[in-house]
Amino acid sequence: MSHHDERTFVMVKPDGVQRGLVGEIIGRLEERGLKLAAAKFMQIDQDLAEQHYGEHEDKPFFDELVAFITSGPVMAMVWEGADATRQVRQMMGTTDPKEAQPGTIRGDLGLDLGQNVIHGSDHEDEGANEREIELFFDEDELVDYERADEPWVYEDA
Ligand code: IDP
Ligand code: MG
Fold first, then answer.
1. Where are the domains of the chain?
2. pLDDT tens digit string along 65-96?
3. Which residues line ligand 1 (CB under 6 A)?
């Protein structure tokens, strides 16, 4: 693995799917130079939702959060690139779209804390990216390839 190969888990949430924002969000990540490594259009069941949001199980909004994330299909993905986890978080913007900067996904596309369009692994939670990838994907579902423009994205590619 080169230093361009950090992987992160990203998901367009049910509100993003219902609002037709899957293409917009994939487009932003693609144009940044990040590489799509896996994708699965799926509906999350109760058990997977509780595991995925396990860190929030004691929070007052946990039941609401699990109900929301299981309420419709999501687009679950793995994206790869230099510093991918932190870069995707920056592109997402802060958790509450009302506080998120314009130019970020949440800041441009959302207005409600509970319906904030996108999930991305937390870069401040060590190993969260690999844990979440494992929860949603088998190892053989991750595709290893080079994007044709890599030498034009990374000086040392
Ligand atoms: P993140 O998605 O930016 O990582 P987290 O703190 O991990 O934010 O929270 C997970 C999700 O739970 C958020 O994306 C948001 O949709 C929801 N959430 C967070 N805090 C609240 C709250 O106070 N009320 C309702 N929903 C919340
Ligand atoms: Mg989080």
1. 6-153
2. 999 999 999 999 999 999 999 999 999 999 99
3. 56, 61, 65, 95, 113-114, 116, 119, 122
Instruction: Report how far residue 145's alpha carbon sits from residue 133's, in angstroms, rounded to the nearest whole number.
Output: 18
Contacts of residue 142, defined as CB under 8 A and 6 or more positions apart, other chains included, come to: 7, 37, 38, 78, 133
pLDDT tens digits along 99-149 = 999 999 999 999 999 999 999 999 999 999 999 999 999 999 999 999 999
**For residue 74, what are the β-bridge partners?**
42
Ligand 2 ion: Cβ-proximal residues, 5 Å cutoff: 122
pTM of full prediction above 0.70: yes
Angle at 108 between CA 102 and CA 109, to 5 degrees: 160
Closest ligand 1 atom number to CA of residue 119: 2
Domain at 6-153, CATH homologous superfamily: Nucleoside diphosphate kinase-like domain (3.30.70.141)
Q: Is 92:12 a contact under the CB 8 Å cutoff?
A: no
